[in-house]
Design a protein that fits this description.
alpha/beta, EC 1.11.1.24
């Protein structure tokens, strides 16, 4: 059954780029912007990450934590963070468990080829751990502004 608004968000406990464990439970009381993106340091992902970066202070003012998720490892995430001066954590999902739990990993098609990968989706999770909004197959650049406008 597909995830829906109002559902309890799937719990997770994964490592970030610093090797620290980040869990949904530890973020209770805050809004969580969990955004899934295909790959560090690619054009669309750069635009999306930089748009979250450029609006980071506004997210913080609204008691929101921004977390990016891809299949890249810590070394790749750290290079990405350093290159674009990203002020938020990137979660490591090399085993695809987190992206699978959030229905953001699956078959993709590009230029006639099929492959498995992450779909650019975002989940807005309320302070009680429930899904407040689901954004599917988003456009990288304007998307963070849409999420920000949905925060109370």
């Amino acid at each position: 059954m597909a995830l829906q608004i109002g559902d309890q968000a799937p719990d997770f406990s994964v490592l970030n780029e610093k090797g620290e464990t980040v869990s949904l439970e530890s973020l209770q009381g805050k809004w969580v912007v969990l955004y899934f993106y295909p790959k560090d340091n690619t054009p669309g992902c750069n635009k999306e990450a930089c748009a979250f970066r450029d609006n980071f202070e506004a997210f913080t003012e609204k008691n929101a934590v921004v977390l990016g998720v891809s299949l890249n490892d810590a070394k790749s995430h750290n290079k990405f963070i350093d290159k674009f001066n990203l002020p938020f954590s990137l979660l490591i999902d090399e085993d695809t468990q987190l992206s699978t739990a959030y229905e953001s990993y699956g078959l993709k098609k590009f230029m006639g080829k099929e492959y498995m990968g992450i779909t650019r989706n975002t989940f807005l999770i309320d302070p009680e751990g429930k899904i407040a909004k689901i954004y599917k197959k988003v456009k990288p650049e304007p998307h963070p502004i849409d999420v920000l406008s949905d925060l109370p």
